[in-house]
Amino acid sequence: NIGLNNLCLSLLPMSINLMLRSCIPLATWLMQSFLSIILPGRISADGSSLLEIALMLSGVFFAGLASVAKEEGAQKSDEAGSVGLGLMVGGLSLVACALYLIFAQWLGKDVKLNPLDMTLYMSVPAAVFLMPLIFYMPHPVGWKGHGAMTDFEVLKEVLVLAPNLLHLVALSGFFAVMYNTLQYTMVSELSATHTAFAGNFNKAATIVMSLVLGMEALPGKPWGAVTVFAIFGGISSFTAYSVLRATAGGGKKAGH
Questions:
Q1: Taking the chain, what is the end-to-end CA distance rounded to the nearest angstrom?
Q2: Tell me: the pLDDT tens digits for 33-50?
């Protein structure tokens, strides 16, 4: 999940990556429904209503529209070459994240592991799984005068040019532990799909910040306006789902 998403970030603009990640709730719902059929009794279906499913499909449409608009606007730039690979990697990261959330829900509710245990236990196999990719999988880095590099080659370059940046890497690891612990707490209390939707509220602010800080630019007319429309349309769809889900949950509790 994390490794594929980081690779996707190196291939796609942040706004498109965030739009793809906004589809995590739909991927989680589909995967949970599929697993509930082949593993009855162990994995339960999410039970979304038709309106909730319609909002998820609407979000996927806007995600696709944003991807097409960004690709069309980037046809004459260096960015276009990596869009196709980035979208494929992003799709794989959705599947990985869906399985990750469902597995975390199973560990919390059935195996009764606490959130901190889940975070630390799952970090070891994740690191082992990523080791071959770190040393043998080159990817675009966005540095002038540099072609595709592996993560290990990037690390060696950073050690030479700016070794103090490794302090920020260590700090990001600390925040990752905090984030995953909080996420596992939520997935244990709520459902995997609901937890996935809870992560969509910060995406609009992150997209705006990436544009304001100059980390990326909108494509030329008319695709820039289409991209903005698609981004906020997708986030609005998933936000509406979250509100609908919370309202339905509150109504059930009131009924009891």
A1: 38
A2: 888 888 776 666 666 678
